[in-house]
Amino acid sequence: MSPMMRGTTDNGLLLPVPDADGEPFWTYAARGELRIQSCADCGGLRFPPRPCCPRCQSFATEWRLMSGRGHIWSYVRPHPPLLPGYAEQAPYNVVLVQLADAPGIRLVGNPVSAPDAALDSVDPALLRVGAPVRAVFAEIAPGVTVPRWLLERP
Amino acid sequence: MTATLKDTTAIVGIGQTPFARQLDPPEKTLACQAILAALDDAGIAPSEVDAFASYTMEETDEVEVAKAVGAGDVTFFSRIGYGGGGSCATVAHLAAAITTGQATVGVAWRSRKRGSGPRPWRDTRAQLPTPAQWTRPYGLLRPVDEIAMLARRYMHEYGATRDHFFNVALACRNRAAQNPAAIMHGRPLTREAYMSARWISEPLCLFDNCLETDGALACVVVAAERARDLRQRPVYVHSAAQGLPSQHHGMVNYWTDDPLAGPSWTAARQLWKAADFGPSDVHVAQIYDAFTTLIPLSLEGYGFCGRGEGAAFTEDGALELGGRLPLNTGGGGLSEAYVHGFNLINEGVRQLRGTSTAQVPGAATCLVTAGEGVPTSALLLRS
Ligand SMILES: [Zn+2]
User: What sequence ranges are listed for the domain Thiolase C-terminal (chain B) (predicted)?
Assistant: First the structure.
């Protein structure tokens, strides 16, 4: 059974379950690229991905490469009770990153000390709203890669 | 002359089961108990009921409920989506159906065993639809994690503090102290207990979260004309609205231009547009409080204060009895019971009947709201 079918990583973290609109995001992420859906007609970026453009109603899409730079818009620190795989690493850090290239677009993610480090690997005292971050990629299960975030000036 | 819902219908009966962390009867039994209690309160025979409304998350459907309680032929039924966002819309849909002649006696209900039942976000096998693929792998698993993200930003942007959230938790707990039916009756809250409570999702602690509850509630809606001949003082549905803002995403509304202006803003515009009075004329409010953070956000959305002023609004006992806006006078989701907000509807009715355990003297107008942070709904009730 593939990890996607199983639904979790070996250490019990949930894998993304892409829908048809979101699938390209994960395919690009597996190549180490952070790409955001945009309208091929008016150029507007949109997230989460969806079939058509809310501005001009075009169904033509492309996926635009982002620089991977952004800043923390907000952050939380979940404590148990949590799913077992997450409880093992709790309390851990979750951030909402506003992309430098697309201020209306914010990605949920984990700030980490290195791409493969644990979800609690950054000292929470270092987190603040506005802190600059950049995207890195971690293969969390065979063929499944997620963006994570390094603090620019830890 | 266009049709209007204004004061054309009234809530004439309310009923509920006990609230507890664990009740033995199944949800269907609890639903029937609450519905029959509400009909008895109204003095209306079950055979007269011809309309039902509940939440899409309700697991006792109208076919089973109608059959069990002995309803007549049913000519209108409706389900409202988005969890706690649906509460007030159940009454609104019945009011619309009755006003337009589709039915005559409507029952809205909610039965729920979340105190003793499973929590969906604990199930790793649950299908993860959009937007879960963008949030859950990173450990944003529970509603509290999703709202905590907005809470942290709100604190950063407007200088809100944990003391402001404590003001909300305390007002609800103080009202529960007056309500023998409340789960937290007899369990006072102190600032010290709040500040030292365990975290659930920083910056939100245990007391920022509602109570997982078993219980059921119901209310009965009829035309205003019929209401005048019944045994209870009618509580009129003065205005009603639903709210699904442009580009809204549900609980994780992180991708709009302005995530801190949630669905309450949209519902409020319609609610006040159709009303004869404004926020400053509201005597008492029942505002959806699954999390303390939702209160300042809703106070802003429904126009009780300006943008960014919701936290400061909670100061100086504003939400307590005798304050500027007495809040959640039964104890709310935080301290009475969390039954997806239906207890807020019934408490609004009690206030306007003059029978609340924490009665606001002379209360004649009440705002009731449904879940903020999801597609929502709201009611303005008047005596
Ligand atoms: Zn377009």
Answer: 264-375
CB contact under 8 A, B255 and A83: no
Identified catalytic residue from B154, B194, B236, B338: B338
Chain A, nearest residue to B201 by Cα? A78
Positive or negative, the CA dihedral B141, B156, B344, A81 is positive
Looking up tokens 């791409």, which residue turns up? A115
Q: pLDDT tens across A82-97, in order?
A: 999 999 999 999 999 9
Query: What confidence score (pLDDT) does residue A61 get?
Result: 97
Measured in angstroms, how far is the CA atom of residue A21 from the centroid of ligand 1? 16
- Rounded CA-CA distance B214/B115 in Å is 5
Q: In the structure encoding, which two tokens stand for residue B60, read together?
A: 């006792």
Residues of A in contact with B128 (CB under 8 A): 14, 16-17
Predicted ipTM of the assembly: 0.94
The tally of domains found in chain B comes to 1
pTM, rounded to two decimals: 0.96
Examine the residue annotation and report whether B302 is marked as an active-site residue of this protein.
Answer: no
DSSP letters of B136-176? GGGT--SHHHHHHHHHHHHHHHH---HHHHHHHHHHHHHHH
In a domain, residue B111? The reply is yes
Residue pLDDT, tens place only, A31-44:
999 999 999 999 99
Q: Name the nearest CA neighbour of B128 among A95, A10, A7.
A: A7
Residue of A nearest to B203 (CA): A76
Least CB–CB distance from A78: residue in B150, B201, B247:
B201
Cβ atoms of A20 and B135 within 8 Å: the answer is no
CB A61 within 8 A of CB A39: yes
Tokens of A132: 């600059």
Residue B367, in any domain of the structure: yes
Q: Domain for residue B333, yes or no?
A: yes
The domain in which residue B78 lies consists of 9-115+210-382
What CATH number does the domain containing B31 carry? 3.40.47.10
B89-105 pLDDT, tens digit per residue, is 999 999 999 999 999 99
pLDDT value, residue A4: 47
Q: How far is B75 from chain A (nearest CA, A)?
A: 37
With 50 as the cut, is the pLDDT of residue A145 above it? yes
Alpha-carbon distance of B86 to B59, in angstroms, equals 14
CB within 8 Å: B201 and A79: yes
CA of A32 to the centre of ligand 1 (A): 26
Cross-chain residue pair A92–B142, CB shorter than 8 Å: no
Nearest by CB to residue B137, choosing from A81, A92, A146, is: A146
Q: In chain B, which stretches have pLDDT less than 70?
A: 1-2, 118-130
Residue B38 located in a structural domain? yes
Which residues make beta-bridge pairs with A39?
A: A61
Q: Is B154 a catalytic residue?
A: no
Q: What is the DSSP string of B18-78?
A: --BS--SS-HHHHHHHHHHHHHHHHT--GGG--EEEEETT-SS-HHHHHHHHT-----EEE
> Cβ–Cβ contacts within 10 Å for residue B230, how many?
17
